[in-house]
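Notes, Module 5: Reading structure tokens.

Key idea: the token line is not a picture. It is a compressed description, and you learn to read it the same way you learned to read a sequence, by spotting repeated patterns. We will look at two proteins. The first is printed below with its tokens.
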Amino acid sequence: MVVGVLLLGCGLTAAASALWVKHNIYASPMQPVRLNVAEQQTLDAKLQTLENPSATEPAKVLNPEEQARTLTLSQKEINAYLAEQNLGDRVRVDLGEGKVSATVIVPVPEDSGLPLISGTTLRLTMSVNAVMNAEKKLAITLTDVRVGGISLPNAWLGDLKGMNLVADDVGTDPAVQRFLAGIKEMEIHPEGLRVLLNE
């Protein structure tokens, strides 16, 4: 009876391990998020308003100029937009309070030189905090990188955890810095993202 219990336990452990490996080390593409017709029209209207501020009707908003520079997107809309950019099967975004988690499917080349995982496809989950700092600049801080719920050591990530990835002294691309300089305010909540652009 004891042997049977041990064998059953070993079998369950082996099956769970195999499922974990298949899900996270040999990850399949994700199902892209799609919007229905009404949701797609709403998203298109938001993007159109951002591209063409004059299309905003002043009578319908308290501050027409600010409204024209504000973009609000739900988590579903963000993931649907990624799908439109042909990224929906590789990237999935989850919003939290002041933070963003992104699940990314990453192919590892055969010649990568990485033991055990060369030639596989990893499912990584990266978490970042995104807030406006005291200087009114967007600060994006990497808080964690996980594979199947296992947090990777900071040393493996080049000690990037806790670092502001878009700080001026990190050597960020000037084009990225100019893009970030265009953001006046940003709020992230589970129900959506709100960005106010500079004039």
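Here is the second protein, with the sequence above and the tokens below, as before.
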Amino acid sequence: MSPQRPTADLHATAAEIAALLEHHRALEALARGQDRTQRGVAVQLQQRQNAADVQRVLRGMHPADVAFVLESFEQDDRLQVWNALEPSQAAEALIEFEPTVRARLVRETGRHRLVRIASALDPDDLAWVSDDLPEDVMAEVRESLGEIDRTLLQQADAYPPQSVGRLMSLDVATVRESQSIGDVLQDLHTRAYLPEHSDRLFVVDTRNLLRGSLSLQSLVLAGPQRTVAEIMEGNPLALRPEDTAAHAARAFERYDLVSMPVVNDRGKLIGRVTVDAVVDFIRVTADKDALAMAGLSGAEDIFSSVWDSARNRSPWLLVNLITAFVATRFIGVFETTIQGFVSLATLMPIVASIGGNTGNQTVALVFRGLAFEQFTPDSRRHLLRKELIVSLLNGILWGSLAGITAGLFYRRAALGIVMMAAIILNLTIAAAVGVLVPLTLHRMGRDPAQGSSVLLTFATDSMGFFLFLCLAWLYL
């Protein structure tokens, strides 16, 4: 395996390829200027030379590094480099791309080449990217597989996306309880290899029922005459293929696992999940949640077209625009009050801003609790009660400071009291919204990250304006 390359080296590789592409574009333009009878041959030879030069630079690189380099190019150059890759190298890089980049490359790759690339993947990796491949391509690839690989792929495809069945690998090393350690070592020498990320062997009986696990450390340190049953760990943690990938990720994080067996309803070992698949899932999920919190309806490549980017960002911008107009109506209701006290217009954003900050802190805390499945009905009530008390205390502290400052600045004590009261009430509302909105979305089966930020902004802005102006109208 290639050593990990520093990011600076990968950027240097991308720059080298960019220079090659620019050079070859100039040469290809010259080739197209040849006599008509020679033009086709000259252009074809130049394109082959382009591909050979790109392959030379990327040869021997880890597939993840190849994907990183390609993702740093704009779309036209990325496609040119992608088409220059050998099908086997392209197949290894395909599973490493960000989902949006992979989907676009698949759309812009010819069917024949796509079949060759997909055919170079093993069943586990093919199942991982099968949702991104056209159905006619998958059908042709299935026909080209051997009977065993076709059965394995069909089994993986039977499970829903985001499930353990889609993450698991079917390449598992097993031993029997009755075997001696010497026999196990001899079998491993005969096998000549272990599946990647193997930290343990799984112990099964004659019916392939999972009985335990045997760590490689225990295997190496135990005497050759001892049996597997004597040193194995019984009752190992196991997953079901129907479990969610998020459940598997939490198990790996909680128990510091490298691999974990997957069993069916009868307890038979059918595969395993490894830490690399879990890390890939966590990375994709984290990217999706980060974009969702910013109001993006889906993943977005930084080199996406202007139209694709604008369309991706539009839905929640529309919602935000509507809620902003609703919030301004609260201002319109108190237009006469504002005209009488112009200072209110300058102080309103402070009330809304500090409420939004409090709400975002609460939302982040709730997201973390949901991610780690820490909530029970009692803990939800406890969190709501605690956040309301915290916001009340912060409101009294910072509302008093803001009120004193405003009162001294505008030489009006009543204005300071109004501002303090508005901040206390708005912080309390922000805390309630920050707890209830994501929990409600989660209970409804919706992504709590999608929309929470927009709804929180609407609540803190509109209620901040309303409370401040209403109190000013009543008190001033």
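Summary for the second protein:
- The chain has three domains: 7-162, 174-284, 306-475.
- Residues 174-284 form a domain with the CBS-domain fold (CATH 3.10.580.10).
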